[in-house]
Known about the structure:
By secondary structure, the chain is mainly alpha-helical. The protein is built from 15 helices and 7 strands. The protein has helices spanning 12-15, 20-38, 46-62, 70-78, 83-101, 120-131, 138-148, 161-165, 168-175, 208-220, 227-231, 247-254, 301-317, 319-332, 343-352, and strands at residues 159-160, 180-181, 183-187, 242-246, 258-262, 268-273, 285-287. Helix 3 crosses helix 5 (83-101) and helix 5 packs across helix 10 (208-220). It starts with 11 loop residues before the first helix and ends in a 7-residue tail after the last helix.
Amino acid sequence: MHALPPVDTLHRCIREHSRSHEIESAYNICLDLEDWIQHRADLGKEKEKALTHCRILGYLIRHFPSDNIGPFVREIVTISGKHQALLDLGERFYVYFVKLFTSKKGRTPMASSHPSRESVDDLVAKVEDELKDARQNHQKGKKLALIRDGFECVVPKAYDREIVYNNQALQQAVLDGADAKCTDCAHIFPEPISSETTPVGSLPEMNFENNAATVWAVLDRFGYRNLRQDLNGARIHRLENVMTMDTCVRMDFDTLRIYFTATEVPNRYKLEAFREIYLCQRPRYVTLSTPDADKYPLPDPTYLAIHAACAKVAHHSGAAEHIKKVVERMEDTLDLAEDGGSSEVLYTAILSSIYTVAV
């Protein structure tokens, strides 16, 4: 967990923002809250959690994923001095933003039929024909992403192994030295926020519709009012929100270990991480491409920017480490303590259960 840096270290783009004074005021409120928490001896075990929630607010200011930061900092300024209200706000972003992007996700199911053994062009035509009347779901999103991504992982470049096994042209490419890996359909915004998902291992009393509504309300604060319309329901599987990834890369992407940072070159991203080991044997830059931008649109840069912002906030605030510890406890704990001491473990287990089964 990283303490909030001083206000004079805020990025130049923030200091040059039209609302720079208001932004700095909100950030100073977070610094004051952090100092107050650190001097509260009575918080006991709750101190680490309180610091995490506080620092989420501070690092959100530092890494806010849009220029429309005004409503967010005004909300902080409005409740200045109300320590519990500020911590509640931080917790809301912890639960419905950071945990959203680290939620448990199921693997892409295997294709129900074998693709063509002919040329790659024939394979594309066959898959397109199969999907012509198919309803939008995880499986369709996976197949469309495979076509757009050239039947390869976007990081690193390697053909989908199942496709290779059933296509002579790709088999020859692999025999000639090309790589092949097991791939998944990686969602940038995870499936749990869709109103048409099927919860797995969930408790009957959990109201998933209300949870999704709260997630959208939190995301609205970033100024992207069209996110709900763009991604609700089956549209969570739209091509703008999915990429073909090697299973191991997807795991690191889903857990915010790696993220994509836009460069000045359109559709070219720098692959970044908080530990060098996460980038080992992976390219530093990734260029996304498509054979037809209208038919097979590329991943939305805005979605990737929000994912990157969440990764930075989760890491610097300590939220990612806190989630990791709770999940480890969850895996080691089979029963709740009679005194409720494991209530947070149950809470995380419930939240982690909100993911989809692809159909």
